[in-house]
Amino acid sequence: MGFLDIIGPVMIGPSSSHTAGAARLGKLAGACWGDDPVREVALFLRGSFAFTSKGHGTDKALVAGLLGMEPDDEGIRTALATAVERGFPFRFEREDVDGAHPNSVRFLFSGRDGRTMEIVGASVGGGAVELQEIDGFALKVTGDLPTLVTFHRDVHGVVAAVAALLADRKINIASMTLHRKTRGGMASLVAEMEMEGNPDPALPGDVEKVHPAIVRVVPLYGRGGPS
After folding, report:
1. 62 C-beta neighbours (distance < 10 Å), count
2. Contact call for residues 140 and 38 (beta carbons, < 8 A)
3. What is the spatial distance between Cα 95 and Cα 47, in angstroms, rounded to a whole number?
4. How many DSSP H helices and E strands does the chain contain?
5. How many C-beta neighbours within 10 Å does residue 173 have?
6. Closest alpha carbon to 140 in 28, 18, 10
7. Rounded to an integer, what distance in angstroms lies between the CA atom of residue 34 and that of residue 133?
8. How far apart are CA 52 and CA 59, in angstroms?
9. Among 17, 47, 58, 146, which residue has the fewest nearby CB atoms (within 10 Å)?
């Protein structure tokens, strides 16, 4: 067992799953969306997230993560007020989904330019999290390692092109998983990377250009997303 599995994460709040994990989920979801202005973020709480959200500070932690805070940031306590002060629009809803993880949430981002993004994530215990869906694609992203998620047309050569570019940059691929909705339709690739130092900010753009079938690349750097 890892040290954090024994003592739990360094955090603000009473629960590693409902507070620390929620903050990490919010930060990962915000990293998926990127820097585009947000018109609104709707958070659909599921299972125990819905029923104990205020008591465990889950609502505050999720919004704190969306604002870029880490699980040990004292600003979690006042995150809802901070979001209002910054003009960051959010709202909470509840939903029942058969088979959903009991500590899970669906984020629905709406941009001022009309862009939307839907992200489903779960807090799986001890502060650990996983993103389970991005825009309907089933996947698994923990945020423990720098990760690139590509969305591309399901054609030959995409995996080889991405792997070759990372190899050329001397980046080791810790794991790579592939997902597709239909053969020949849209697909996604999740590459967890091991590297020394911080990832090159230009890397996602370079990956997007490495094959014409790649439509979009989502960078998720470090534990819980980029700082």
Report:
1. 34
2. no
3. 8
4. 7, 10
5. 14
6. 28
7. 16
8. 9
9. 47
pLDDT tens for 78-123 read 999 999 999 999 999 999 888 888 889 999 999 999 999 999 999 8
Supply the pTM of this predicted model: 0.81
What's the one-letter identity of residue 160? A
Q: Give the single-character DSSP code of 145.
A: S
Q: What angle do CA 139, 88, 47 make, to 5 degrees?
A: 45
Q: Would you say how long the chain is, in residues?
A: 227
Confidence band for 227, pLDDT divided at 50, 70 and 90: very low
Please identify which residue in the block is written with the tokens 């439509």.
215
Q: Identify which of 162, 157, 168, 147 has the alpha carbon closest to the alpha carbon of residue 208.
A: 162
CA 121 to chain centre: 7
Q: Whole-angstrom Cα distance, residue 176 to residue 186?
A: 17
| CA-CA-CA-CA torsion sign (27, 5, 12, 122) | positive
Question: DSSP letters of 78-89?
Answer: GHHHHHHHHT--
The residue behind tokens 């709406």 is: 110
